[in-house]
């Protein structure tokens, strides 16, 4: 049994070491795949319909184009108001495509903002708006956003970008956001009231699908928003539709206000009766209605069963109980034997004082209350009269929003290492699909290939953190190794016990004085050492020790007083 346990432990440790080594190889990019699978080059796209195409693979170009905010968030404590979150161009923690880089928010619990100008302003005329980008929540997401803001006209220069903060006007905000169990996928647009020029945020309805996985699977996801001139919109995640609708019908508050509103000056008349039913004023309590009658009464027909033992208690002190020897009446009080069921009551219908059972009182009626009748003065639920809405307007073209001049990320996240990649703003859905084919589709194909291998499935099951699982394996191995050591010790002790049962040391055994005592029996199968081959060393006191050592009960040899004597070198 000990050998089997050692084998199991060894196999576990080898598996843990293999997982850890494979993890290191994977992190270093050492993968077994064809040259074609490993190829990647930064996506290229052209056309007048592209307003921004950013792959973040060129760090020098990024530093020239993107501007980190130097502003402070408004309405928060001065100590945390500064946008001091750090942005860096990095390779993903989990390498998928060689040489692929992304924009990473490396800090947590800090305000962070970064933005860039479009190559040319986007005007909402007769072409759709398509904004598409990737997000990889490399450490998952507990609380925070990964949305993008499309900044309105007025943010026109890099100097404006350095002032980018939470109150900077935007036209569209789009992307994932989570805190606790509240999983959101924002699509917000700011609508301008054509009557008075005020701006109001319009929030889209919630997606039709559950979104939990995108916040915890630590894989790249592609977010696409399409807003069309016919006022329809579509939202896709990983090229699959999760939300769609109309700018006119599926936003809160609605774009167009109601034509009529409640008159704020109208008040309910004092004599308006909204009670549908009232207590019957003519009803009187019947003369025979006894409100004091109890709900339960003693059964007048009940008879005490024959054989009932009135003088026998149901419980008696245990006659076999004895006061504990360590009971101190001064400290513990007077000792009383525990109670047990009275054996005399076992065969009887009952013991002790008999009382008849109770039954429901047939004359019980409870508290009398007058019945309800329809209210003859009932006028219904009062509502104020409706009047024309003085602020009414009708905008049939909410798509015609404020032009977009820049894009930016203005975020707060409690999870670090948010990675953004392959951002495109265009007016051609085909160009957005072409961009995704060169980037996101390649990543998903690589992930799919990896997941088909044993190691890929293991990584996915371990949430792409094999190093932590290796530590967990070592942690689990500690109690296992202790248990295995215990089994080995027991096996040796059992072996010693068997030997003593067949060759027990007798009182007059002459071998006891010749140094063949318990220490020699302890390890009968150990390989002989050089000192053993040269002969036993003389131990002048061994006979004396044998004579003074008490005999050991061989039946309990495994737990006896035998101790191994130290080997002399």
UniProtKB/TrEMBL annotation:
Membrane association type: Single-pass membrane protein
Residues covered by region (Disordered): 24-43, 246-329, 499-569
Ranges annotated as spanning the membrane: 467-488
Key words of the record: Chaperone, Endoplasmic reticulum, Membrane, Signal, Transmembrane, Transmembrane helix
Annotated compartments: Endoplasmic reticulum membrane
Superkingdom of source: Eukaryota
One matching Pfam family: Calreticulin
Segments of skewed composition (Acidic residues): 308-317, 515-524
InterPro entries referenced in this protein's UniProt entry, alphabetically: Calret/calnex (IPR001580), Calret/calnex_CS (IPR018124), Calreticulin/calnexin_P_dom_sf (IPR009033), ConA-like_dom_sf (IPR013320)
Signal sequence region: 1-21
Residue spans of biased composition, Basic and acidic residues class: 264-279, 499-514
PANTHER family: CALNEXIN 14D-RELATED, CALRETICULIN AND CALNEXIN
Protein family according to the UniProt entry: Belongs to the calreticulin family.
Protein name, as recorded: Calnexin isoform X1
Lineage: Eukaryota, Metazoa, Ecdysozoa, Arthropoda, Hexapoda
